[in-house]
Amino acid sequence: MIQYLTFMATRTKGDVSKSVEKVCLELFEKLGVKAGVDVKLEGDGEDRIVRVVIDSSDEQGLLIGKRGSTLLAIQAFLGMAVKQETGEWVRVQVDIGDWREKLEEYLTDIAHQAAQRARETGEEQNLYNLTPSHRRMIHVILADAKGVVTESRGEGEERYLVVKPV
Q1: 101-165 has which CATH code?
Q2: Of residues 4 and 19, which shows the higher confidence score?
Q3: DSSP state for residue 102 in the 8-state scheme
Q4: What is the pTM of this model?
Q5: Do domains 2-97 and 101-165 have the same CATH topology?
Q6: What is the pLDDT of residues 48-94, one digit of tens each?
Q7: Cβ atoms 114, 134 nearer than 8 A
Q8: β partners of residue 53
Q9: Alpha carbons 139 and 146: distance in angstroms, whole number
Q10: Per-domain boundaries in the chain
């Protein structure tokens, strides 16, 4: 990977979205994965984000990985490669097979179910095995929910989210 990043650093600076697309396609070629890539640059200044949609029906599960781990690794790699090539940090968001949309729907369902149980039973509802970003999403989803509040407890890998009745 270091050799690849060094190679990327020697390339000329150019349009960020074209750089992301080129890096992504080169990465997939080196991995032997057939995939299409759609890249869009959105926003201005610090709010800029490069959205990358990868289309690979044959390799979708491989590219997403367990709990999105491979997808997040690809996302991090693209961010570092673009920094090497352009000299600037740009937020990169990768999606494969509508994974992000499905994840948000899943987390929204879990959040609302936990909130409903907390209101009905008057007991705290613990949600385990969530990544930091998943916990953050649930905090946001339930921020305006009536009758419940959320908090994170624990440390490191043992951290979990609690939905508490008010």
Answers
A1: 3.30.1370.50
A2: 19
A3: H
A4: 0.75
A5: no
A6: 899 999 998 888 999 999 889 999 999 999 999 888 888 888 899 99
A7: no
A8: 38, 95
A9: 13
A10: 2-97, 101-165
Q: Which CATH superfamily is domain 2-97 in?
A: K homology (KH) domain (3.30.300.20)
Place of tokens 């390339």: 11
| The one-letter amino acid at 15 | D
**pLDDT for the residue numbered 45:** 79
d(C-alpha 26, C-alpha 152), whole Å:
40
Contact 23, 85 (CB under 8 A): yes
Contact residues for 106 (Cβ-Cβ < 8 A; gap 6+): none
**pLDDT one-digit tens code per residue, 105-138:** 999 999 999 999 999 999 999 999 999 989 999 9
Rounded to an integer, what distance in angstroms lies between the CA atom of residue 135 and that of residue 56?
28
Look at residue 108 and give its three-state secondary structure. Answer: helix
